[in-house]
Amino acid sequence: MSEIIPEEYKRTVKSALNMLAYADCTANQLEKKLTAKGYSQESIEFAVNYALQRGYLNEKRYLERFIEQLANTKLYGLNRIALEIYKKGFSLALVRDNLGEFVKNIDFEENCIKLAQKNKRSDRNKLYEYLIRAGHTGAHAAKAVKIVLSQANDDQI
């Protein structure tokens, strides 16, 4: 017995799948995008559930890739990653249950040193503040500043 789906629901699902084909997003983001397009709340809920049930919308997979990208490409520290996750609208339960697993293999100290080397600031305080804004801990930032500035001094000799 096939279920008869109203036409608006079909349009909403098609729109949602088109959005997901271009970029991953959270269920919250997808709802906001569909609301902005003027779909009804019932059809939006149907489309989000449809995408979740069929695996088109997988927040756990998206969260893992998002964390990996922030840590390995942008070289962010854990504090900045947490802020970016919050801004994206991931569910708190999902983050709480998976964050530790997703960051356990990331060497934040090494990333902090790489970011400091990439930055090329010679002022100790400005470099330290930059690393803190990137979400690194004070200990990692202090160590990275010390290493990078001592390397810069060795290069000048």
Please characterize this protein's 3D structure.
The protein is an all-alpha fold. 75% of the residues lie in helices and 0% in strands. Helix 2 runs antiparallel to helix 3 and helix 7 packs across helix 8 (124-133).
Features of this protein?
157 residues, 9 helices, mainly alpha
> What overall form do the CA principal axes indicate?
elongated
Overall pLDDT:
90
Q: Beta-strand level of the residues, as a percent range?
A: under 5%
Helix count equals 9
Oligomeric state of the chains present here = single chain
Q: Could you tell me the radius of gyration in angstroms?
A: 21 Å
Secondary-structure-based class equals: mainly alpha
End-to-end Cα distance = 81 Å
Fraction of residues in H or I helices: over 70%
Strand elements, count:
0
Unreliable stretches (pLDDT < 50, length at least 5) are none
Listing every helix as H and every strand as E from the N terminus to the C terminus, the arrangement reads: HHHHHHHHH
Largest sheet: none
Fold blueprint:
Blueprint: H1 7-22, H2 27-36, H3 41-53, H4 59-72, H5 78-88, H6 92-103, H7 108-119, H8 124-133, H9 138-156
How would you concisely characterize the structure shown here?
The chain is 75% helix and 0% strand. The protein is an all-alpha fold and 157 residues long.
